[in-house]
Amino acid sequence: NAGVMQNPRHLVRRRGQEARLRCSPMKGHSHVYWYRQLPEEGLKFMVYLQKENIIDESGMPKERFSAEFPKEGPSILRIQQVVRGDSAAYFCASSPPGLAGAEDTQYFGPGTRLTVL
Amino acid sequence: AQSVSQHNHHVILSEAASLELGCNYSYGGTVNLFWYVQYPGQHLQLLLKYFSGDPLVKGIKGFEAEFIKSKFSFNLRKPSVQWSDTAEYFCAVKISYSWGKLQFGAGTQVVVTP
Questions:
Q1: Of B36, B20, B8, B14, which Cα lies nearest the Cα of B109?
Q2: Is B104 within 8 Å of A48 when comparing Cβ atoms?
């Protein structure tokens, strides 16, 4: 019963390159969330997706960041033209399908630690 | 906008001491409340959660938390800590009857000395 999988676990990029972070939700889960953790801070919500739909992207920076959760395959968080300030840990979480108000709990992956040189 | 405050950023205590971590939130409506723990080098794990019912919630590893609605608080407690409880602890809040984002506190780093 695999948990939430994220890869890579560590990613190093130079300024201006692209970073692609992958998240495979737990089996049977159709809701995916991305969070960012900056040093000395708590997790900040970025985006919430269901299959092929972005439900809430209120936490996403307006430029350079995008996310998708295709019908097949993992969810991808994409950061274009990375800058040093993008260095952080990026966590993915998933929760099962169901009605809003059900006792849905988010289960977290191990995170991807992005370092921008 | 809702916010979550954790009062202590760092706590150091000895084994067998009691632990209480404060968490307050600002939101007037119904909320779901969570405590997550992040052990060194590991991902976030759910300690306990409150959705409804008994405001005293028991979680894993001997932790419990009490929801006090009038104080907008959800404090975490453990009567007797162990060295293995060294970790960072995060309080999180979600608006009830909605999907979506968790609002996290800044976290409390707990160090338990032998």
A1: B8
A2: no
- For B100-110, how does the pLDDT look when each residue is reduced to its tens digit (9 = 90+)? 789 999 999 99
Which residues, including other chains, have CB under 8 Å from residue B9's CB and lie 6 or more apart? B106, B107, B108, B109
The predicted structure's pLDDT at residue A28: 86
List CB contacts (< 8 A) between A100 and chain B: 97-99
Could you report the per-residue pLDDT of B28-67, keeping only the tens digit for each? Answer: 788 899 999 999 888 899 999 998 899 999 999 999 999 9
| B6 phi and psi angles, rounded to 5 deg | -110, 125
Report chain A residues touching chain B, CB-CB < 8 A: 4, 31, 33, 35, 40-45, 48, 55-56, 58-59, 91, 93, 95, 100-101, 103-111
